[in-house]
Amino acid sequence: QVQLVESGGGLVQAGGSLRLSCAASGQTFSSYVMGWFRQAPGKEREFVAALSQGGTITHYRDSVKGRFTISRDNAKNTVYLQMNSLKPEDTAVYYCAASNLFTAATMRPATMTPPNFASWGQGTQVTVSS
């Protein structure tokens, strides 16, 4: 498995931006589909975005489309989540996750669920004030 460490969370006003980073170590980073999930208090962990091994295929939850961008730098073993036009409802702990179950050809939005990701970071808090 791969070890993951997130950073970049914080407190921001509505309409602001944050960039989350997730540094990976261990087995070959470039072989994993990478995802971002989030969990708000009292709610289930939900999918936010995912990116194929080569960065050619992306999936986003509908509520973040056009505002969030997932990217990766395989040379640096890092995946990013650029978050723009943040809203109070984006407030949550954000988790980075890795999956070796899919390829670019087989990853589908419906399969981007927590049980399909075996490696997780510790999470980073994002708080958006109104």
Describe this structure in words.
With 130 residues, the chain is an all-beta fold. It has no helices and eleven strands. The protein has strands at residues 2-7, 10-13, 18-26, 33-39, 46-51, 58-60, 68-73, 78-83, 92-99, 119-120, 124-129. Strands 2, 4, 5, 6, 9, 10 and 11 form a seven-stranded mixed β-sheet that branches. The chain has a four-stranded antiparallel β-sheet with strand order 1-3-8-7, with no helix packed on it. Strand 5 and strand 6 (58-60) form a beta hairpin. The model has no long low-confidence stretch (mean pLDDT 96).
Straight-line N-to-C gap: 39 Å
The Cα radius of gyration reads 14 Å
- Share of residues in strands: over 45%
The total of beta strands comes to: 11
Give me the strand/helix succession: EEEEEEEEEEE
Round the mean pLDDT to the nearest integer and report it: 96
Q: What overall form do the CA principal axes indicate?
A: globular
**Which percent range fits the helix content?**
under 10%
Instruction: Return residue spans where pLDDT drops below 50 for at least 5 consecutive residues.
Output: none
Structural class: mainly beta
Key terms for this structure?
11 strands; 130 residues; 48% strand; mainly beta
SSE layout and pairing:
Blueprint lengths: L1 E6 L2 E4 L4 E9 L6 E7 L6 E6 L6 E3 L7 E6 L4 E6 L8 E8 L19 E2 L3 E6 L1
Parallel strand pairs: 2-11
Antiparallel strand pairs: 1-3, 3-8, 4-5, 4-9, 5-6, 7-8, 9-10, 9-11
